[in-house]
Amino acid sequence: MKIFRYLCLVLSSVLLCLFVACSQDSQPIRIAKHLWPGYEFLELGQDLHYIPHSVAELVDTASATESIKLLHQGNVDAATLTLDEVLLARSQGLDLTIILVMDVSVGADKIIAREPISNVKDLKAGTIAVENTAVGRLLMMKAISSAGLSLFDIEVLPVTVDEHLTVWQAGKADAIVTYEPVATSILDHGGHVVFDSSRIPETIVDVLAVKTEVLHEQPDTLRALVSGFFKSLKHFLTNPQDAAYRISAHLNVPSHEVMMLYQGMELPSLERNRKLLSADNPNLIEVANDIVSLNLLTTPESSSNTLTTHLYTDQFLQ
Amino acid sequence: MKWLFIFVFFLLSSLPSFANDIFHVGIFAYRPATVTENRWQYLEQYLEQQVPNSDFVLEVLDLEQLEQGVRQNRFDFVLTNPVHFIQMRSKYPLSGALGTLVRVLDQNTVSAIGGVIFTRADNHAIQQLEDVAKASISSPSPITMGGYMAPLYELQQAGIDIDKLDVEFTHSTHDSVVENVLTGKTDVGFIRTSILEQLIQEGQLAWNQIKLIHLQALSDYPFVVSTRLYPEWPFIALPKVRETTARKVASAILGLDSRHQVSQKIGISGFTVPADYLPVEQSMRELGVAPYDVEPKVSFKQVWQQHSFFILVLIFTISLILLLLLVIARQNISLRLSEQKVTEYLKEIEKRHQFLRSTFSAIPDLVWIKDQHGVYLDCNSRYESYLNKSRNKIIGEPDQTHFPSVEAEHIHAHDQEVLRLRLPSVQEDLYHFKSDGHDEILEVIKTPILDSSNQIIGILGIGRDITDRKQAEKDLSLSREVFENTLEGIMITDHRGTIVDVNPAFNRITGYSHEEVVGQNPSILSSGRQESGFYAHMWQDLQKKGYWKGEIWNRKKSGEIYAELLSISALKGEDGSNQFYVGIFSDITHSKQQQEQLSLMAHYDVLTELPNRALFADRFNQAILHSKRNQKLLAVCFIDLDNFKPVNDNYGHETGDLLLVEVANRLLDSVRGEDTVSRLGGDEFALLLNDIGSQKECMRMLDRILHKLENPFVINGFSHYISASIGATLYPSDDEDVDTLLRHADQAMYQAKLAGKQRYYLFDAAEDKIVSQKQLVQEQVKKALHADELTLFYQPKVNMATGEVFGAEALIRWQHPEKGLISPLEFLPYLTATEMEVEIGEWVISQAIQQLHEWSSQGLVLEISVNIASYHLQKDAFITRLAYALEGYPGLDASKLQLEVLESSVLSDVKTIRKTIEHCQQQLGVTVSLDDFGTGYSSLTHLRSFTADTVKIDKSFIQDMLDDPNDHVIVDGVIGLAESFGRDVIAEGVESCEHGLMLMAMGCHLAQGYGIARPMPAADIPAWLADYQPDERWLQYASRPHSLSSNKALILELTVERWYRKLVAKIQSESHEGLDWPILDKDRCHYGIWIESVAKEHIFKPTSLARLDQAHEALHSIANELFALYQKHDYGAAREGLSRLHHAYEQICRSYPDKPGTNDAESYSRGYL
């Protein structure tokens, strides 16, 4: 009799466990993303079912600014952003944590100038079109200071990325700070690169930033998302032919040109991500502090140092 | 002719075709063979054009044929699908792909291939991938990429179990699959990309006939596709193809592009660089198809990652079940255990019952049980034998049945009494056993038996046989009588020694009552007179032997000490250990006292009551142990009264005896309690003084004793004055037995008597030893002399200036038969001032004279010098005996005999010696030399007092004069002195040519030493003389006249060279021992002193002196530097500096003022003093 009692207890506890395991909540993470080759592995992952729709739902936006807006509105849980955009969002009161570095710009962000300007120095008294983001600003600041110029020497024309091509075609600027795939299109319309992010390594990083509350609520889903991302990256690297066709469909460039979009971009592997996001690695925080010191963020002085605390985590890199 | 030409022409033109290489190209027919062949024939021609001297044979085959060809190594090149490529690569040696096929459709070129999943347009059941899982599928072959592998992979990725798919392979072309689907043979078809498009182009199919599943949106891929894309077909070269050919073929196929005629004819866009077939391989691997159909190695980590939850649940469940099983098993075991316990308990009860029954019968006592009315309930076998009835007959009957009525009545009455009182009763009585008629005294105990409610239910009787006990009690009372009445004291103690009992005799002897001593330790009787080890010894004996017997001093209660003869016996208990000790003793004090008197007489002098010699010896042995323990001295003294005999003679023995008693008393007063005064007999006493701190202390005590004895002794009204002579020796410096020590003390006393009595003399053990050693050596030398073991060696003496050998010194040697040649230093010192010394001396003289005679007869004219000891020289008979010896050889020139007298020896008796010497010279004509000159205290005096012919400079000065300026000064001085007094001077210890030159520069020309010759037997002398070559440098020196300055320069040269050599040798030796440093102080070295001296004398020009001084300074500065390096163990650096030193030395050599200048003094001088 006693034995049966024991067995019943065991059976019920086993069933309970199973029930709990199966009923884990699996609401998909909503991710805002705009067009950028580095973010395409999310699309590729969805395409190849590495990132099932039960794990993530991708919401296309026109720009990072719109992505941040969606975060504010609570329409999305995460967004693909550059480091500075994450800091901007945090300065606006959004509690975001970086869980993944998707790419590191080593030349993908460029300053393109039209003839007869041959180098950055020649931009003195010229007009530079730039998206009013830290990446753009940072690249521009680094470029002009490398040429011995200051902000007073140039005219800055703020333009969002979706307008870059039209502004360029209209000839409204002597140079433009832009990035792929727009950069390739602009170069097709005449122009040449006078400065790019390979000159400032590990400064411009594209990341996946997640609302910190989601971090605690859906850790398993995030883990699945990150794991799917790396499977997708692996597919890209091992079967580039297939990947190129799929990415070209999203980016609207011919498939044979897809691989060229990734020039000037480092795609960090899982291991590299672990290093970049390791608590021991001060690099990301240093760059973040650099960006904060550009004073682009409209944030009170006092909270400026809290912007970079708990900025990232490596807990989902498994 | 014409035909011949044609023939030759044909022959020639056909030759190359024979020489052509033939290459077989296998192509997989993915479409019907004819279609494929028609298209690909153009490649054959193209390749033949591109690759000279080659024939290409294209074979379009199905997979099986193709693989067979590869297996048989028939093909040189193969064009097949990627899956087949990967499979073949794992089976056969294949080189990599030369190129990857590029297909074309409507000007869109593709080098990627995928799979198409499709069904009939009217099949509504199949809409998406999941539906395919349940449908029947047609595929061309498992070894196709698009036709099987790619769709399969897609299904697997979608989570469909691919093992359950219903796939039917046509083993034919892709077209056959399309046909199967269209005809409805199967629901779904798997084909590669571009087939549908081609069929439609060929008009064999229309898009509306079919429905595509899982269509992929790939921007500019020209074909419909349902799967991921993979690289197109590879064009493979097999390993047997030469590399040059492979290269040419590769270049040819890569040269085909979409515009090329051949490409267009084949219907492809040409070939592109070989693609990476990794994706194909990976997909195949994940699908687990051949060649990857082996079970993948699954690591625990992977399993854990995938199924962690289920594994945990499983482990948990299994653990719980195990736990439950454990609980059940435990309960089972405990149940079994309790069952076992009950069985065992029952067995135990049965066993106990049996045991009780057996015990009851086994009891040696009589046991019976009756009820309260006296009827027997039970009894044991003893009771049966008492009544001589069986148990059955006894039980159930009252006593009336078993005993006569009166007795029965009596028993019953007693039983009832016991029951009434409810108390056990004990009775003793004689019982008669009816079985055999014997009687026993029984102790009968009757006890009422009560039940649990305290009601009487019966009576138990037990009868015990106490016959033996009764007898023992009787015996014991007899023993007690003896104990009480015996005259010997008896004391009984338990094993710890506590007194248990004593008898009345004990009380009588000791005075202690029974109560006073019982419970006490026998030590209350202890007198304290027994030695410390006594009781331990006694106990040891008791433990070992079980008894002890002996005499012992005890103390009575009154305090009086008495002797008892005691014997103790140990009484052993049952375990064999000593339980009690019985001591029986009687008082033997009286007989003890008599015995003591006897002992006193044996150990003591009757007259003075002092210990006699025997006791003295005993005391000494004890004192020695004491002395060794305390590290103190022990004095043994021998006292002899100085004027005792006249007292005895003049006043009679009585007075003498009284005086001796008085002396004994005074001696006892003078010493401490622990010292022993003993009379040895007559007027001789001995003292044993303990714990002497020092010799001084002993002397103080002896002084006290002498003083005490000086006072007058008043005997019978007359005063007597006596004194004593005391000899003493101290142990342990005189480490001997008592008899020897007494003898030594006796000897010392004798010395005291000799020295004038009334004093003490201490025996000197060390002196005694030397004396005996001296005697021993003397005896040995005496024996040696008689055994002819002594011999004379001769060391030649030369004149260095002439090279002439003018004499030899006779030196004594002892040729010992066992020890070999013994140096005179080992025995001559022991002969000092003895007759033996004289005897040896005379032997030497006679030998030397004999040798002189021998040599002169051989024509050798040599002087012989002999060493004469001072004691010998002082002998009265010396002169007469010498004269007698000389008289033996009348023709001998006595002046050739030289007596060498030690300078130090002439001290002892100057007058006698001077006389003897003068007599020898004047009367006998012998010459005399003063030996070891310079070592004495007043050499100058001696030189003046003695008319010695020659002065011999001691070799210690000669040997060191080159190194030590002080020795040089002495030698120079002695030479000067000898010259002033008109004496010849000879140097001994000349070890080198330099020594000789130096001596000559100082004015001494006669020499002996190892530099010339070692001492040798007389027989060797003639041969040596014949061989002797005088030193060339000496002769050279002597051949020229020398001025003072040139001698000075020579001395400088010699000493500086010596100094330099010594320094170099030291530095090169690298060792701190062995060689010495030369004098490094520049003011104290030869050179420095030389400069100082010549500067005073103005012998040399100041300029040359300045130069020399400078060179000297330089030499020393380098030398000191090297010395410092050497001290730091930097030997290498020190050696390196030698070249500089050499340079400085050469500088000095160049600076020698060898040529006398105008200002240099011309007069001759011996040295620089």
Describe the structure using short key phrases.
heterodimer; A: 318 residues; alpha/beta; 5-stranded mixed β-sheet; globular; B: 1169 residues; alpha+beta; 8-stranded mixed barrel; 7-stranded mixed β-sheet; 21% strand; flat
Number of strands of chain A: 11
The DSSP helix count of chain B reads 43
Structural class label of chain B: alpha+beta
Main beta sheet strand tally, sense and closure of chain A: 6 strands, mixed
Unreliable spans of chain A are 17-24
Structure description:
The complex is a heterodimer of chains A (318) and B (1169). In chain A, the strands form 2 sheets. A 6-stranded mixed beta sheet of chain A has the order 2-1-3-10-4-11, sandwiched between helices. Chain A has a 5-stranded mixed beta sheet with strand order 7-6-8-5-9, with helices on both faces. Chain A contains 13 helices and 11 strands. Chain A has 318 residues and is α/β, with parallel strands linked by helices. About 3% of the residues of chain A have low confidence. With 1169 residues, chain B is an alpha+beta fold. Helix content of chain B is 48%, strand content 21%. In chain B, helix 23 packs antiparallel against helix 24, helix 39 runs antiparallel to helix 40 and helix 40 packs antiparallel against helix 41. The two termini of chain B are 141 Å apart. The chains are: A alpha/beta (318), B alpha+beta (1169). The interface between A and B is medium-sized, with 24 and 31 residues.
